[in-house]
Amino acid sequence: MAFGSLFCCGRSSEGREPGKKAAPAWRVFSLKELHSATNNFNYDNKLGEGGFGSVYWGQLWDGSQIAVKRLKTWSTKAEMEFAVEIEILARVRHPNLLTLRGCCAEGKERLIVYDYMPNLSLLSHLHGQQAAGCLLDWGRRMSIAIGSAEGIAYLHHHATPHIIHRDIKASNVLLDSEFQARVADFGFAKLIPDGATHSKPEKRPIMLDVVDLLKGVSKEKLLSLEDNELFKPESTAGYQGLSM
Ligand SMILES: Nc1ncnc2c1ncn2[C@@H]1O[C@H](COP(=O)(O)OP(=O)(O)O)[C@@H](O)[C@H]1O
Ligand SMILES: [Mg+2]
Fold this sequence. Notes:
- Helices cover 27% and strands 19% of the residues.
- The protein is α+β, with helices and mostly antiparallel strands.
- The chain has a six-stranded mixed β-sheet with strand order 1-5-6-4-3-2, sandwiched between helices.
């Protein structure tokens, strides 16, 4: 699998001024650098875990804080998720989407580096370790719901090509220092070819479905959305653009 074209510093298309040299949006990290930033992926640095692997807090030499997602076990499927997440996150910049800092691929190690989100996931506040702190008042909840919707709307309508996330849930909405929502985890996302539309617009999930998924309470809704052809693995919206 050739990831060569992915592994060069990227520049997102957002916020570029003509004639001005923009700072690289993301870069390649060495494994050594990430070992040192995370104290050798120390258990005490662990922020969370998902299907792909564990996520660790780290600090770079310049003092900036990062989150590093480390692949659990190498497989072709995991390699695909890794490539998809980088391919897609590198294209987008929006205040309600998690920012990609870079990646690392050495041997069978696959790591993705993001900005650290100090208030962790929405799930941890609704049903997890942070729930007892009752930090989410109604004002914050509204702004998280609206922010998540704005991030998703940007992916659907403004990213080029359009993107569908396909894994919206409370553990994939992170919260920054101001409790602003940042949609994360693009491992299942798909790029939608230009001009492609859903054959049955009435089958598209409405915002209320999305809010139920964000609350993490509606298993039935999730099942019905999984039956929706838009969310089926094989469609015209393939992994185009990946160098594999
Ligand atoms: N940038 C981050 N800052 C803080 N915590 C994070 C960050 N990224 C991920 N996490 C934590 O790790 C968990 C798993 O991350 P995620 O990207 O969803 O991985 P997976 O692809 O394995 O599901 C999240 O639910 C969250 O608790
Ligand atoms: Mg996840």
